[in-house]
Design a protein that fits this description.
149 residues
Length: 149
């Protein structure tokens, strides 16, 4: 599965997130990549909105992990400040990447294939001119990701 959304502003990015939430199911993992300020947290707000999360959604840059309740549990993880494999290992990702909810990981390109399920979503947010964003989502196989990274 591959899909691309174009967003011209944060409100449209939230709408993209709501649309993405429509094809998620329990146990799904989403790896978000993009430059600083690309809109990873804004997209996560939309995904959470679509999953009926009522809590305020903010970046977990300093807490590392935020957990929310909605249609099912949502775990929002930010790896930006983690710089080594041991930092990531000490986080206990195996606990957070569980079958009972959705796990969204910002700076997902820092994650090694060891933590990945057989299939997962990779979402690249590419910044363009005039604040436009191209949001590319693809469901990929762990083996294909491991050979490409």
């Amino acid at each position: 599965m591959k899909k691309t959304f174009i967003s011209k502003n944060p409100a449209e990015t939230i709408k993209c997130g709501v649309a993405i939430s429509g094809f998620l199911k329990k146990g799904d993992l989403l790896l978000l990549t993009g430059m600083l300020g690309a809109g990873k947290t804004v997209l996560t707000k939309g995904i959470c909105k679509g999953l009926k999360v009522k809590s305020f959604i903010n970046s977990p840059s300093f807490k590392i992990v935020n957990e929310y309740r909605g249609t099912f549990p949502v775990r929002h993880i930010d790896l930006y400040r983690l710089n080594t494999d041991s930092d990531i290992e000490n986080l206990g990702l195996d606990y957070y990447i569980a079958d009972d909810g959705i796990t969204i990981i910002e700076w997902g390109d820092k994650l090694t294939s060891r933590y990945l399920p057989d299939k997962f979503f990779k979402i690249d947010i590419l910044s363009g001119n005039d604040n436009k964003r191209r949001i590319k989502i693809e469901k990929i196989q762990k083996a294909a990701y491991a050979s490409g990274n």
